[in-house]
Amino acid sequence: MSHPKSHEFPFSVARGTLPLGTTGSVPTSGDVNMRLSPQTRLDLAKITTITVAYVLFSCFLAVYDRVMLEPIVQGRWPENYSFRTNLLLHTFAGLVAGTLGGYAMVLLNKTIFRRNSLGIALLKGAGAFLLVYATVTVAVSVAVGLAFARGLPIAEVFATAIKNATAPTQWIFLIVWGSVALLTLFLLQVYDKFGPGVLRKFLLGQYFHPKEESRVFMFLDMRSSTSIAEQIGTAAYFALLRDCYALMTKPIVESRGEINQYIGDEVVISWQTSGGLADARFLRCFFEIQRTIHEAAQTFRDQYGLTPEFKAGIHAGQVVAGEIGEIKKDIVYSGDVLNATARIQDLCNNYQVDLLASSEALSQLGDPEMFNCERIGLIELRGKEERIELFAVRAELAPDHN
């Protein structure tokens, strides 16, 4: 089979090593350093959400204390009591707990939670919470002592603060905030279960009623998966898949893709076209995944005796998206574009290429400055009457990774 002649694709096509999420000219190192990656922004959004929730909850506790103590004191509050000061201190406590605790829990969720079972991870998370709680409690107690001190020596203020921090009443706060922390860790797990942005869509009912969307889909598949499973055994093969999927996470997040489904050794990823794909995110995603696997090649060879390779098909079009299921709900995409994408991916072996993309997908690229494409031609896909124009997209690894 002879390959057609290579030519410039008219929309955008890109060979290059620009970082994900960039367009136009190559950014300077200063620009790259100042630009937060999507993964960093995602982590910061989680920490900010946790902090805001903790501040609101802490303020609620201050108001609750005021309301519950009112019948007891009957208006005869101690001279050194100020609801405003107490509210500010609770706000400070929530801010510290949310910032430190949020950072710790997001970090734990990315490391310990992904290397341990849920039960063990929760135990380790509880231990981390106790450490953070002790720090916050002492800090708040010291702040209270300084706020209400009337010429007392600093040493006495600290001694009183430590005593207050270890008082029996603190156990109530420990139980309350411990429950809040474990709930936070659980919700982070739920968030990861659905994937970035999907939980929000469920909560807002964005797909409760099915609706049409224009999306780009990538079907990513491991080459020779059956023979690999026979060669290394099913248990090792499953571990190989888990390691590969872990390495793919960052490129997918960096390209703002959504993981729609894991199907054995295949991953279905999609991008909304409404937000614009001028920086060729879906193409960059594939080659970033290739580069990431390439960098870990020695580790794969040491552990499994081989380096996994992947091929992919990319297509774009209209799909219907909506919630489906009774005892297990999910957001599902339905449409002919999905079947076509799977057929395109199957053709990678026929043309001995790693990546095949349709003209419908490549037409989503706004500014053609990056990858070179080779036209395959108008191909009739299995089960489809209408032919689809396909292009083989090739790109070399960056020189510093060869």
What does this structure look like?
This protein is of the alpha+beta class and 402 residues long. It folds into two domains: 38-194, no CATH class; 205-401, Alpha-Beta Plaits (2-Layer Sandwich). Helices cover 55% and strands 16% of the residues. It is built from 15 helices and eight strands. It has helices spanning 29-34, 38-73, 83-110, 112-115, 118-148, 154-165, 169-194, 198-204, 225-232, 234-254, 281-295, 297-304, 336-346, 348-351, 359-362, and strands at residues 211-222, 258-263, 266-272, 310-324, 330-334, 355-358, 372-379, 388-394. Strands 1, 2, 3, 4, 5, 6, 7 and 8 form an eight-stranded mixed beta sheet that branches. A hairpin with an 8-residue loop joins strand 7 (372-379) and strand 8. It is elongated and about 85 Å long. It starts with 28 loop residues before the first helix and ends in an 8-residue tail after the last strand. Residues 1-34 and 397-402 have low confidence and may be disordered.
Task: Give the SSE map.
Blueprint: H1 29-34, H2 38-73, H3 83-110, H4 112-115, H5 118-148, H6 154-165, H7 169-194, H8 198-204, E1 211-222, H9 225-232, H10 234-254, E2 258-263, E3 266-272, H11 281-295, H12 297-304, E4 310-324, E5 330-334, H13 336-346, H14 348-351, E6 355-358, H15 359-362, E7 372-379, E8 388-394
Parallel strand pairs: 4-6
Antiparallel strand pairs: 1-3, 1-4, 2-3, 4-5, 6-8, 7-8
